[in-house]
Amino acid sequence: MGATTTxxxxxxxxxxxxxxxxxxxxxxERVVAHRRREDAVPEPYPAPVDAWCxxxxxxxxxxxxxxxxxLILSASLFERGHAWNALSADAGAGSASADERERFxxxxxxxxxxxxxLAVRLHARRPLRSVVMLLDTYLDRSFPGHAAYQVSxxxxxxxxxxxxxELAPCRVNAVAxxxxxxxVRDPAQRAEQEDAIKARTLLGRIxxxxxxxxxxxxxxxxxxxxxxxxxxxxxRFKL
Length: 239
Fold this sequence. Notes:
β1, α1 (15-26) and β2 (30-35) form a beta-alpha-beta unit. The chain has helices at 15-26, 96-125, 147-166, 187-199, 209-221, and strands spanning 6-10, 30-35, 50-53, 70-73, 130-134, 171-177, 229-232. The model has no long low-confidence stretch (mean pLDDT 91). It is an alpha/beta fold. A 7-stranded parallel β-sheet has the order 3-2-1-4-5-6-7, with helices on both faces.
């Protein structure tokens, strides 16, 4: 990969998205770093990037001006919701059912429809070489209160396979990470959560951001791999 290669990374301001952007920069590539809002300026990157802003809950008004070779879809939306068994028959404004419907629509928009539109429109303007989407190891499992998110991720898996067929010879793949950055902030609760995850993981440890970055970059550059979903979860669900 040389300096003429341009990679667009969505959700590039923080967490895994930022690590992916930095991995591309380390290769001497040009990076278009997506963030949600123009006023949400991230910490400086180790090398210059081209900023591009788009709230993925809104229609895609304009594509980035730069010609894009590779697209890495890291941005996502996760919201805990209601357990559907606890929803009432009332679907009026302000009800739990209406609240869950709105949450469902937001997660499908950000996790499915926005990535689809961005990939298809970029490819129509100038054929992409590859697309890599970040999913979740929970894409085929659901738990009460998380169903809307899980459905959006399962639909994302279908999107990856559909794009691989529709956009060929552009290669389209996905990484489905396990727990890499636990959400619990309280140190004691976080330690308890990590211990529980380790006990259910064959490799006996929490994943590292580098594990996910390495997998995504492999799939981005693998010349004879497409339509694949690579789980990077340490064997989380093999027990």
